[in-house]
Amino acid sequence: MTQDELKKAVGWAALDYVTPCTIVGVGTGSTAAHFIDALASIKHQIEGAVSSSEASTAKLKEYRIPVFDLNEVDQLAVYVDGADEINRQMEMIKGGGAALTREKIIAAVADRFICIADASKQVDVLGNFPLPVEVIPMARAYVSRELVKLGWLPEYRQNVVTDNGNIILDVHNLKIMEPIKLEAAINALPGVVTVGLFAARCADVALIGTPDGVKTIKK
Ligand code: 5RP
């Protein structure tokens, strides 16, 4: 099976976690795009979606799935999204698609975070995938210097402006032994909007696409 077929399998498997007559939290990326395709097949059974990016919003609208502003929504039963890395504790690196801030906000609102990923995303230690940090543009150089002072290697993601008008620094070569602590430390730097570590709010369920089928891991 190709990696995309594994992504498609988990995108469709996530339908089992969608409660009828509710608004569904929808992530961003190629795996989440498969979930949107799947969601379209039951669109008459749901009220609509809240979306974590302009790209996912456009795809939801193509399917004529109603997209709600998160401020109009009191409660979300599930948020379904991909990941760049996920460890055994269900902590994740996300933001390869630069949508980390909206993803983290929707994940915070949702009762359950369903992570959908192909098996290549499973790791023992987070940090091989460059850790994205969304930064207010005027703070780019300051935040970079602070990250270098801490011994890390940030790289400005060229030609990328997030949906919130900010820039992304990718921090390379990390071995993240204490994800919750690191998440708090990076988030505390002035100018940082969000770091793409999802540790304080990790996944509740992971659907992992393998050649032997979709494996379900629960926290
Ligand atoms: C976007 C994300 C994505 O979930 C992550 O990058 C995984 O993407 P894909 O499903 O394309 O492998 O966090 O900001």
Automatic annotation (TrEMBL):
Keyword Isomerase listed:
yes
Query: Which reaction equations make up its catalytic activity?
Result: aldehydo-D-ribose 5-phosphate = D-ribulose 5-phosphate
Pathway(s) annotated for this protein in UniProt: Carbohydrate degradation; pentose phosphate pathway; D-ribose 5-phosphate from D-ribulose 5-phosphate (non-oxidative stage): step 1/1
Q: Which PANTHER family match?
A: RIBOSE-5-PHOSPHATE ISOMERASE
Q: Which residues form the active site?
A: 103
Tell me yes or no: is Cytoplasm among this UniProt entry's keywords: no
Q: How does it assemble?
A: Homodimer.
Q: What is its EC number?
A: 5.3.1.6
Q: Give a Pfam family name.
A: Rib_5-P_isom_A
Q: Which GO terms are recorded in the biological process aspect for this UniProt protein?
A: D-ribose metabolic process; pentose-phosphate shunt, non-oxidative branch
Specify which residues bind substrate according to the UniProt entry for this protein: 28-31, 81-84, 94-97, 121
Q: Name one GO cellular component term.
A: cytosol
Q: Which domain of life is it from?
A: Bacteria
- GO MF annotation, one: ribose-5-phosphate isomerase activity
Protein family per UniProt: Belongs to the ribose 5-phosphate isomerase family.
Query: What does this chain do?
Result: Catalyzes the reversible conversion of ribose-5-phosphate to ribulose 5-phosphate.
Its EC top class is: isomerase
According to UniProt, the name of this protein is Ribose-5-phosphate isomerase A
| Keywords in alphabetical order | Isomerase
